Amino acid sequence: MPEVPLERKMFVDTIRKFARNELELVADEIDATGEFPVNLYRRLGALGFLGLRLPAEYGGFMDGSPDSVAVMMCVEEIAKASAGFALSVGASITLFAANVARNGNEEQRAAYLPGIASGEKIGCWGLTEPDAGSDALGIKTRAVRAEGGWLLNGRKTFITNAPIADHFIIIARTGGEPGRIDGGTAFILDRGADGLSTGKPLDKMGMRCSPTGEIFLDNVFVPDSRVLGKPGNGFFDMMASLDFERSVAGAINVAIAQRCLEICLEYSKTRTQFGKPISKFQLVQEKIARMHRDIELARTYIIHVLEMIDSGRLVTAQAGIAKWFATEMGTQAALDAIQILGGYGYCREYKVERYMRDAKLLEIGAGTNEINKLLIAKVLLGA
């Protein structure tokens, strides 16, 4: 692997210290309570992380070409402490802010990006619906023309940050039939808009401090100035967003696996059975070796995919591979960690049970792994 640039290394070190010295201290508590620590989100804004992929003129940290690998490395450090916190932070900066930066006009960038970069505002991205999860092109939320703008009606569900978001990107159909890639349009909405409401946070198995919920749209008026990108182009823009999201989702599970490995290494050297440390048992060694192998493979491949994204290449198949491999690997690493720790692994003291609960989500969210397999096959077959 090439040497890490000094500036990137210094920035990642700063985020690592934040994760260890601040986030780690409350990780178990926010998992138990299901509360998102807004104060720590704002701390990330003060440290510059929330603006890492945003232009400097809008309060961001990027004064040249994007450095998605730096984002990935920071996300990994955050997720080692709290994967749920990393998930919500990622949704705000990669699904909301990055889309505004990439597809928005000057007015929209100036209105929305500084607040995200500083940590004063939280964003979310509304695509999934009760009857349109894996079938993203089957959404039923509609936007129809009104004087000076559009009226939106529909319902979104399983939306990360929906219960706490200040700003929303909503994908709606403005034309075309369900199942077609044309006719989708993205809109920017603000909390407090007439007809927009959100449900209470869903009670989830894992990623508990990441608020997930529903969005209800009842004749919500959105002016033309809040159409994001070109009308009718929303599904095409969605593809680029999902490729990056899938790669970062993989990085979260790499972090989970890495932390599980670290816990297993320490535990196996001190836990004795049959008169010797369990690290001497070959079946334990096999699990540890496999964790390390898969972490190295997943991390290296995700970096490769992110470098391709920054160079402007289309990576639908590669992002699917990264997400599929890394997320399944993370879940398996957490299960293996529980097995190595035995009864202790099943208890909350050693945290690996939390990592297992968190890891499983990422085999489902950002496109199920079954969908990623189909996308990879379609690219290979030219379908």
Task: Provide a concise account of the structure shown.
This protein has 383 residues and is α+β, with helices and mostly antiparallel strands.
Name the features.
383 residues; 10 strands; 15% strand; 10 helices; Butyryl-CoA Dehydrogenase, subunit A, domain 3; Butyryl-CoA Dehydrogenase, subunit A, domain 2; four-stranded mixed β-sheet; 3 domains; four-stranded antiparallel β-sheet
What secondary-structure arrangement, pairings included, does this model have?
Layout: H1 6-33, H2 38-47, H3 68-81, H4 83-103, H5 106-118, E1 123-126, E2 142-146, E3 149-160, E4 167-173, E5 184-190, E6 196-198, E7 212-223, E8 227-228, H6 234-270, E9 272-273, E10 276-277, H7 282-310, H8 316-341, H9 352-361, H10 369-381
Parallel strand pairs: 1-4
Antiparallel strand pairs: 2-3, 3-7, 4-5, 5-8, 6-7, 9-10
Helix pairs in contact: 1-3, 3-4, 3-6, 4-5, 4-6, 6-7, 6-8, 6-9, 7-8, 8-9, 8-10
Q: What is the terminal separation in angstroms?
A: 34 Å
Overall helicity:
40-55%
The H-level CATH homologous superfamily of the largest domain, spelled out, is Butyryl-CoA Dehydrogenase, subunit A, domain 3
CATH class of the largest domain: Mainly Alpha
Query: How does the helix and strand content classify structurally?
Result: alpha+beta
Average of pLDDT: 93
In terms of DSSP E residues, the strand content is 5-15%
| Alpha-carbon Rg, integer | 21 Å
Uncertain parts = none
- Number of continuous helical runs: 10
**SSE order, as H and E?**
HHHHHEEEEEEEEHEEHHHH
Shape descriptor reads: globular
Count the domains.
3
Count the beta strands: 10
Largest sheet: 4 strands, mixed
CATH level 3 topology of the largest domain: Butyryl-CoA Dehydrogenase, subunit A, domain 3
Strands of the widest sheet, in order across it, are 1-4-5-8
Supply the CATH architecture of the largest domain: Up-down Bundle
